[in-house]
Amino acid sequence: MTVRWWSRSTVRACALLLAVAAAAVAVPGRAETPFRVAMSLADVPRTWGGPDGGFEGLRMGGYTIYDALVNWDLRSSDKPSKLVPGLAESWQLDPADHTRWIFKLRQGVRFHDGSKFDADAAIWNFQSVFDDKAPQYNPQRGAFIRVRLSSIAGYQKIDDHTIAVTTAIGRYPAAPLGFMAAHIAASLVFVPRTLLAIVAGLLFGTGWGIVWAELGSVAGAAAGFLVARYVSSGLIDLQRGSRVSSLLEWVERGGWRAVALLRLIPIMPHSVANYGLGLTALPLGAYAFGSLIGQLPLTIAYVELGAAGERSLVGNTGWIEPTLIGFAALSLSLLFSAYFRRRSR
After folding, report:
1. What is the pTM of this model?
2. Phi–psi pair at 294, nearest 5 degrees
3. What CA–CA distances, in Å, run from 101 to 104, 146, 310, 319?
4. CA–CA gap between residue 54 and residue 145 (Å, rounded)
């Protein structure tokens, strides 16, 4: 009788095949399969409410263990994820302050030890990261988590099931000044002011967005005007009798009203008009006032559209109103433009 000795690798292979076959026979109609993810971690991340180990640690010990106020919808792999309710059943911007978010907390939620989750529990967790005077504060954990939550400037309990979270713009009072400085620089290098108005809507919302976008637009217009008049009068070479030269002469004679009309009807690009009007004898005061009045409708339109886009991106239902206002202001500006162009023929 001959005995065949099998190698260890052969035995393992046969055992694996038998296991697969047995699983197929035991669950013939099962479509689910294990989902394995490889991670570049040297050790198991700490489970202290904000796992260490970078993003690898977060998706291993963060998303899988802890609940957040707002979650990512990760059920589909063939389309972008969107924000869905978590421990907060809804959220919206404070109408009076675009940097303040109001979260309505889900009721009836309890921790594993039976204690209830409410506004006090949510604030306790914020304090454990941001308040170094709180007894639950951990310096190492706080420093690690704050890097990911740099957009949070403050938090507040409103009632037992409602909290408010203030975002980063509220932390930086000089943000509007920075935006205006960027607006002035952008105007000098021919960046469209409509793009900057949309950015203002994204950053500051509708109310303050209109204020800062309008002031930045006027400041940028004045900067281009003064550069052309006192620094580089040869930046734009206008031939007498040309169409552009005739238009600028008409504006010069018409004063602030003509400037407002030129801004309202975008016959000439904003930055080009800034430099061109600086070559005329038009007073700076009349130029600035006319720009303020004439630019306002389009500023309102694009700031409202920017604010609507920001609200839509974060899943807020309040995007409809600014969208309608934006398109109404844009339509009004276009109607004025069409009317005056027809009259000028």
Report:
1. 0.52
2. -70, -30
3. 10, 18, 13, 15
4. 10
